[in-house]
Amino acid sequence: MHSIPMGPRRTRVSLLIGLVLAVVMVVVGIVAFAVGGPPWFAVIMLVAGILVTILAIVRLRALGRH
Fold first, then answer.
1. What pTM value is reported for the model?
2. What is the spatial distance between Cα 3 and Cα 42, in angstroms, rounded to a whole number?
3. Distance between CA atoms of 23 and 52, rounded to whole angstroms?
């Protein structure tokens, strides 16, 4: 299957949406810890949210340089 490359504007929008969802994941992880939810769920949400946030920020900065 061939993929059509997205333009810079669509890539930026996709990364911003990913960044927002990653921040939501971090908030859900914090809330899960606060209300006494399952610790494994909270840790997974926090770690995944932080990793995706870092990745999105790095990609947005790299996209901004070009």
1. 0.78
2. 35
3. 9
- Contact between 40 and 27 under an 8 Å Cβ cutoff? The reply is no
Closest CA to 11 of 44, 51, 3: 3
Instruction: Name, in order, each residue with C-beta under 8 angstroms of 8's C-beta and a sequence gap of 6 or more.
Output: 63, 66
Phi, psi values for residue 51, rounded to 5°: -65, -45
The two structure tokens encoding residue 54: 């870092």
What does each of the 66 residues of the chain score in pLDDT, given as a tens digit? 556 666 677 788 888 899 999 999 999 999 999 999 899 999 999 999 999 999 988 988 888 776
Question: Degrees (nearest 5) of the Cα angle 9, 45, 15?
Answer: 5
20 is written with which tokens? 């927002």
Residue at 65: amino acid letter? R
